[in-house]
Fold each of these.
Amino acid sequence: MTTSDKGNLREEFNRWAEAGRGAGMEEDHLPITLPVLEKMRLEPTDNVLDVGCGAGWLSRRIARMVPEGRVVGMDISDEMIRVARRGSVEHDHVLYVTGEVGEIPWEPNFFTHAISVESAYYWPEPGKGVKEMFRVLRPGGTAWILINYYRDNPHCHQWGPLLAVATKLLSAEEWSGLFDEAGFAEIAHERVADPSPSPETYTGRWFRDAAQLKAFKTEGALLVYGRKT
């Protein structure tokens, strides 16, 4: 990732934080994230990395599931990290750090799980990010990437030009290939449908109309995961 890439991402998500957009992420992404948390089968003593943690909604939820472990939320936006810290003062086993996925600021072989929700398509070098997740996982640890923007769902392709920063529109097979190149085993991918209700009339900018929004939710998010052996 170039210095320019880092700066652009940081500036964009700092603007999101200042606009209060971090607060709505839980409502938007919880319906597709809850099934993933079930699949992770977290234990009370697990150490979990939340890559692209934003305002910390997922880190806080995971913290309640691993009361004897450690949760580290990482985001490239220092403003998002400040928001996350302010909202997590009651969780003394949650730590937030500023960093980018190409150079995760943590020691190797520490985490039992690493998860990234709605962040990975912003990574300028996705392969490097997956390799870094592999590095910081201990043997037997698992990595989970959940994204709504991927090539196999045609109902999201229009997002790219609407976003202020560059994105990577990769297929499920391409993401699985990056997991393989990083050294993961037991690699799999699946769809996670969004069961949340849709409005009868859609007036936002991300979809053509309500029908396309419903089709997008039916196609579902892409979940890719693997284990470090």
Amino acid sequence: MSVLKAALVQLNNGPDIQENIKITEDLVRRAADQGADLVCTPENTCHIRFSSADKLKSSLPEKDHPVLEKLSGLAREKKFWLLIGSLTIKLSDSKVANRSFLIDDTGAVVVRYDKIHLFDVDLPTGETHRESDVVQAGRRAVATQTPWGKMGLSICYDLRFAYLYRKLAQQGSAKILTVPAAFTVPTGKAHWEVLLRARAIETGSFVLAPAQCGRHEGGRETYGHSLVVGPWGEILAQGGDEPGIVTADIDPAAVDKARSAIPALKHDREIIP
């Protein structure tokens, strides 16, 4: 398999979908013009709303979503693969999906993934999140074939659940794992890098993690620091605190080398309680 040039787009999204489309399209187009084979955007590529009620009210069905239409058209025009980290997709009057889309270079949706683990937490800082108030959790792990090997999809809080990535690497044969996110600042500073590197090391996979950054509606702040991590746990590229593009070359052969050196994916044992 050929070497993949991956680009992560880091965003600072507000509440207005149309305004966010303009900024995102510009960054994605720039990444494609720089020769990226795969461009990845973060969680909440559409918009970030402060309250659950506003999130539900402002969400759209997949068939009507302008972000999906605009970015899939750009992938078709520029002939690159695209991971839309997630869009808030309206499912009913009371629920949405936090849904990731992998799109090929013809603009077709190859696969969808609905976030499984929902962010329901009370942080020590006093910050509270209840994603399950309006988000319907997914139930299916998703891995799919790409020109660079199998890719396994996840979203943000999924990162804390190592068994998901082990399943993607073992049963899904994934060599590349995607973790688009909107990590909070306190948890990002404490855990973002170490968790991403751990998932890469545990599975011997590349990890692509595009992130939201900065201050958003309602005073919410996200950590940024988009990361590309290699299968030996090495950081290949890293973003900062501002919107922009992070790129790295990915050689799928490095996955086989790492898994051959430490074949931990083959060493599961049944544990008797």
